[in-house]
Write a structure and sequence with these properties.
The protein is of the alpha+beta class. About 65% of the residues lie in helices and about 15% in strands. It folds into 4 domains: about 1-205; about 255-360, Beta-Lactamase (2-Layer Sandwich); about 370-450; about 465-630, Heat Shock Protein 90, CATH 3.30.565. The protein is built from 17 helices and 14 strands. Strands 1, 2, 3, 4, 5, 6 and 7 form a 7-stranded antiparallel β-sheet that branches. Strands 9-11-12-14-13 form a 5-stranded mixed β-sheet. It has a two-stranded antiparallel sheet with strand order 8-10. Helix 1 runs parallel beside helix 3, helix 10 (about 360-420) runs antiparallel to helix 11 (about 425-455) and helix 14 packs antiparallel against helix 16 (about 580-590). It is flat.
């Protein structure tokens, strides 16, 4: 009988093994077929999606071109410029993705149509740019563009239809493979289940007797072990009671609220602070679900928040509450809290509870709200200040224009009187006319600088780029001031590098920068002093430094020198003419070119050094925007 059982068990094992191998081989083939269908399906889906996107881009480009034709607003050209730069890449990508030859033919047919459509759009845009909207409108109304777009849609729709058919076929093949695999697995599983049940039955009968023989021996052995275990449990229980008492004293002395739970999330401990915040005493809360005692909501939505205890027990990791969480007490009282929940592990590392530590942060939240309100108020104030500064610049610009017309008349008539056109003047009259002419020129300079400063601050100042020979420009401006330098008996030193490159900049504005800085050095340097200028190439920039041994700048005034109309207060500067706008205007003109300007001084009567850096290739934000629109 035992031999028959062994033979049957062996046969059942062989049958199961053969079935497993057969199912594995067939499943592998089916899975490979499913994988191939999935790949084809993915390709078809991507091709369809990319085709729709390409057609959408062309529609947006056509719509943008018509918008530009109607409004002459270059912002409408953004879709056209985008599709013009990417259409060929998209077509190439479609050719690579398309695995169906029929789809490739439609792509080949669509390519020249798309090129023709883009050329037609470019022609319309060019006519509009050349201020010939009538011709551009005539071209649009001819219907050529619509015909091209219709033909493109036909080719793209045919391509989409082919890919959708391929997608449907792939889905069908995939479903067939899955059905076949399902039937195969069910059939094989039933056969193996019957074989396994038979095998288990015979094994069960064999082992049943062996278990009966072992049962008596094991029972005697376990009785002995149980006696030893009971003794160890009594000792462990006594030790545990001592540990729990110590833990209760420690947790009760903590300044934060503490709650502990078991593995099911039921409360096993509350300290005094936790009782005060939740409104529950430990006897009342013991054994209750933690969510019933620790009720929390979002301050913003007033909806229940996810309990960190649940997350900790589920994940076995430390969890924290989101900001702005409110604890609802048993009596309905509310307080803002912050907390941290950590899992409690046994010796094997399994989670058998959680401990939650939380505190009342209501006072802190009120402080944070006050700080946020103050920050928002400061932002509002900053916005108002910017608006006021822009209004000031606009006002100064408008007033400067209004003042220059009568001022030009004053200086013009003063020059005519001084030249003796209306007859000779005596010395007293000449002094009066000289004062009028000098004051008028000074006031005209002040107005011009105010106007330039207002233009820069209001964003209306533009730069006209040209190739600028900096070496010649610096030498030329130093010659303009040579007469004044000689009269004041100043010593001028020029250190201009022989290899100083030409730069891309606005010639008039760069001349104004250099003239302002050099004339300041001459004005604020007493007789017999020294002034100088250094210029060299530094990487992709040029650096120009204008220095003097004049009155200098006190440390407390260094932050004020770029404020309009500020002048250094010294006995020498009080008798020196100036507007206080030259340095602020120079700084803004340098920054308009994408450069930097900085000032250094050792203090009063210790001279000043002004350094500005200009890029060899202009990095002006204004120019970059103009170039992007023009392209």
């Amino acid at each position: 009988m035992k031999n028959i059982q062994k033979i049957f068990i062996s046969l059942a094992g062989v049958v199961i093994l053969i079935l497993v191998v057969a199912v594995s081989v067939i499943s592998l083939g089916v899975f490979r077929q499913i994988e191939e269908s999935a790949v084809l399906r993915k390709h078809s889906f991507i091709v369809i999606n990319n085709t729709v996107n390409l057609l959408s881009e062309l529609k947006d480009a056509e719509t943008g071109g018509r918008g530009y034709l109607l409004t002459n607003n270059k912002a409408y050209l953004e879709p056209y410029l985008a599709v013009r730069g990417t259409i060929r890449d998209h077509m190439a990508e479609l050719r690579q993705l398309t695995l169906i030859s029929a789809s490739q033919k439609h792509l080949d047919a669509a390519a020249p149509l798309i090129d023709a459509k883009l050329a037609e759009l470019a022609h319309v845009i060019e006519m509009r740019r050349n201020n010939d909207p009538a011709a551009a409108l005539t071209l649009v109304e001819s219907g050529k563009g619509k015909l091209l777009m219709d033909l493109i849609r036909v080719e793209m729709n045919d391509l989409t239809r082919i890919e959708q058919d391929a997608l449907a076929k792939s889905d069908s093949d995939l479903q067939k493979g899955l059905r076949f695999l399902f039937i195969l697995i069910i059939t094989a599983s039933l056969i193996m289940l019957l074989s396994a049940l038979s095998l288990v039955y015979f094994i069960y009968r064999e082992t049943q007797q062996q278990l009966k023989n072992l049962a008596h021996t094991q029972t005697q052995h376990l009785l002995g072990i149980q006696e030893d275990t009971n003794k160890q449990l009594k000792q462990a229980y006594a030790t545990l009671q001592i540990s729990e008492e110590k833990l209760a004293v420690t947790l009760g002395s903590i300044g934060d609220a503490v709650m502990a739970t078991d593995a099911e999330g039921r409360v096993t401990y509350l300290n005094v602070i936790a009782e005060q915040l939740t409104g529950w005493t430990f006897p009342q809360a013991s054994g209750r679900p933690a969510e019933e005692v620790f009720r929390i909501i979002s301050e913003e939505t007033r909806q229940s928040s996810i309990s960190p205890i649940k997350e900790t027990l589920a994940r076995g990791t430390i969890q924290s509450l989101a900001n702005h969480t409110i604890l609802i007490g048993r009596d309905g009282s509310e307080c803002a809290i912050a907390d941290s929940c950590a899992p409690i592990h046994d010796r094997e590392g399994l989670v058998f509870g959680a401990v939650l530590v939380f505190r009342d942060v209501t006072e802190r939240m009120e402080i944070e709200k006050g700080l946020k309100k103050a920050h928002d108020d400061l932002n509002t104030l900053a916005t108002e200040l910017k608006r006021a500064a822009r209004a000031k610049s606009d006002f100064l610009g408008n007033m400067s224009h209004e003042l220059r017309t009568p001022l030009n008349s004053i200086t013009g008539f003063s020059e005519v009187l001084y030249d003796g056109t209306f007859g000779p003047l005596n010395d007293k009259q000449k002094n009066y006319v000289t004062n009028i002419l000098t004051s008028g020129q000074h006031l005209l300079l002040l107005i011009n600088q105010i106007l330039d400063l207002a233009k820069v601050e209001s964003g209306k100042m533009k730069v006209a780029l040209s190739r600028l020979p900096m070496k010649d420009l610096l030498n030329g401006i130093s010659l303009l001031l040579a007469d004044t330098v000689g009269k004041k008996k100043l010593h001028m030193q020029l250190e201009i590098a022989a290899d100083l490159p030409d730069i891309e900049a606005d010639e008039l504005k760069v001349k104004e920068i250099v003239y302002n800085l050099l004339s300041n050095a001459v004005k604020f340097t007493p007789e017999g002093g020294k002034i100088g200028m250094r210029a060299k190439k530094t990487g992709l920039d040029i650096a120009v430094t204008v220095w003097d041994t004049g009155v200098g700048i006190a440390a407390e005034n260094m932050e004020k020198i770029f404020e309009g109309f500020f002048r250094v207060d010294t006995p020498f500067s009080r008798v020196t003419e100036g507007t206080g706008l030259g340095l602020p205007l120079s700084k803004k003109l340098v920054e308009l070119h994408g450069g930097e300007l900085s000032v250094e001084s050792g203090g009063l009567n210790k001279g000043t050094s002004v350094k500005f850096i200009l890029p060899i290739k202009s990095r002006s934000v204004v120019l970059d925007e103009a170039k992007s629109i023009g392209s």
